[in-house]
Design brief:
Chain lengths: ~270, ~260
């Protein structure tokens, strides 16, 4: 029976809360501005070598050059395509496998040691094999992304499925529920928070996968820009690549956070 | 009175890697139609297993369990189970929580939904229909859980210490609440508890179990009038006499 007729004290409290978050955002922006300014000044007055450390203005110029030559979006879309495709494949396939393992504890027990070993294996070790199997191209990079992301997905989602309350399962069974009904009525809704946190982790993981893949084999993409820039000692290119990566990863993270708001009902 | 639930020489053995445990041995008892039966026993004597057996979630190693002379082999629509905590699903509104058994049994038709709504209205949760469990008090939640138990129109309710998760004050109130609702709906109930006073304040018949392997030690018909509610019973002189008697029997078993 709560309506929107807040008391005066309550309004004051809300105002204070709003002010607090405003202060936090302004300081966050200030920190960034200060950092960029300091970087620019230090390089401009030759306190640090702008050839080695680049500078905000040089990054801006490099981006502008890449843009006017039309390369910028080719690189961005290549990497985005690989990352998103890998992300989607790994997430859906990983969840599917987690469901199968939840369904059959027999299969889970059989495959547990393999999952554990695959999880601890540094996937980059498989780099040469992947190049030979999939050729030096997008396929290999997407495969690398899937490989990096999928094991974590399986482990997280399975843990989420299994932590569903035993007593609630018992309750549903006493109502005559079969495994499918337990899954749809209890396991899925109770695993939603784990699902969202898995998505968040997977965003990071697929960026690792795609950039790692591009380091190994590629002729375009942000990872390629960075590696190429390093090889020919164009550190402006390396920094530009890194900045673009930061922006892209940030946007993707916020998309997932937005999804979280839509999916997970917060207790009031 | 018609016999509803019957245990006939039921035994239950548990197996683990290192042990074989005989939890229940030659357990026989009846629950008649309309009766409120309480089972008390020393802790760890397998009270919950008895309910799981009655609910068809476990099968006995030996013996037979029947509901209206039909053997129970799997969860039956005429039986509803209420656990220690309310176990309302936090992502469902009260209304949807109450209807859960209907959904699981694929019986979500207008008639049954109407019945669920009637129960919600009758027992004072109408204003909270659209609320989520976390917005309700412990007592309210337990009431919602009871209505959920009732909405599939079971004949027999199995209650596994349904008040133990509540604080004392709420417990007395919910106990009263549940008693009245079960009586007014004319349901048969089988309650297991370790709380002697709860058993006396609710039951028509109390079955005392021995320690493991559990079997029936004694059966007592509690001689209160059916219309006396739990609180009134607690105020009655006979209450303390019953308490002393049952406490003595249980205590003997615990040693």
């Amino acid at each position: 029976m709560k309506k929107n007729n807040y008391s005066k004290k309550h309004l004051e409290y809300l105002k204070k809360e709003k002010k607090n978050s405003l202060v936090i955002i302004s300081i966050q922006i200030l920190v960034l501005v200060f950092f960029l300014l300091l970087w620019e000044l230090l390089t401009r007055f030759n306190f640090v070598d702008s050839f080695l450390f680049s500078s905000p203005s040089r990054i801006y110029n490099t981006t502008a050059t890449l843009y006017s030559s039309g390369e910028l979006f080719t690189h961005i879309f290549t990497t985005l395509y690989e990352t998103i495709l890998g992300f989607l494949i790994a997430t859906s396939l990983g969840i599917l496998i987690a469901v199968i393992f939840w369904w059959s504890s027999f299969l889970r027990r059989v495959f547990e040691p393999y999952i554990v070993v695959l999880n601890s294996l540094p996937k980059i070790a498989l780099g040469p094999l992947i190049i030979i199997w999939f050729g030096a191209g997008t396929k290999a990079i997407v495969f690398m992304t899937v490989l990096v992301t999928i094991i974590v997905t399986i482990i997280n989602m399975l843990a989420g499925f299994i932590q569903a309350d035993e007593d609630k399962i018992l309750l549903l069974k006493s109502m005559g529920a079969n495994k499918w009904k337990i899954f749809t009525n209890l396991i899925i809704p109770s695993s939603l928070p784990v699902f969202v946190s898995t998505l968040k982790i997977n965003v990071g993981m697929s960026w690792i996968g795609s950039i790692m893949g591009e380091y190994l084999v590629s002729r375009q993409g942000i990872g390629y820009l960075i590696v190429y820039g390093g090889q020919v000692f164009k550190l402006d290119l390396v920094m530009t690549g890194t900045v673009i990566l930061c922006l892209l990863a940030g946007v993707m993270y916020f998309l997932v956070a937005f999804l979280e708001k839509k999916l997970v009902r917060k207790p009031k | 009175m018609k016999n509803l639930l019957a245990f006939e020489k039921v035994s239950l053995t548990y197996y683990t890697k290192t042990n074989e445990t005989l939890a229940i041995k030659d357990l026989s008892f009846n629950v008649n139609q309309g009766e409120f039966v309480a089972i008390i026993g020393p802790s760890g004597c397998g009270k919950t297993s008895i309910l799981s057996l009655a609910a068809g979630l476990l099968s006995p190693s030996q013996g037979k369990i029947t509901l209206s002379n039909r053997q129970i082999t799997r969860p039956d629509d005429k039986i509803a189970y209420m656990l220690q905590k309310d176990h309302l699903f936090p992502w469902l509104s009260i209304e949807k929580n109450v209807r859960l058994p209907l959904k699981i049994k694929s019986k979500l038709n207008t008639e049954n939904i109407e019945y669920a709504n009637q129960l919600i209205e009758k027992y004072g949760l109408k204003d909270f229909k659209k609320y989520y469990p976390e917005q309700l008090s412990g007592g309210m939640r337990q009431r919602a859980a009871l209505i959920r138990t009732l909405c599939s129109k079971p004949e027999l309710l199995l209650l596994d210490e349904p008040f133990s998760a509540l604080d004392y004050q709420t417990r007395l109130y919910v106990c009263e609440d549940v008693y009245k609702i079960i009586r007014s709906e004319n349901k048969t109930a089988l309650l297991v508890t370790h709380d002697i006073s709860e058993a006396i304040s609710l039951a028509d018949k109390i079955i005392v179990l021995t320690k493991r392997p559990a079997t029936v030690k004694s059966v007592h018909m509690i001689d209160f009038d059916k219309s006396t509610t739990p609180i009134c019973r607690r105020e009655d002189k006979r209450f303390s006499l019953w308490f002393e008697k049952l406490w003595g029997e249980l205590n003997f078993e615990e040693k």
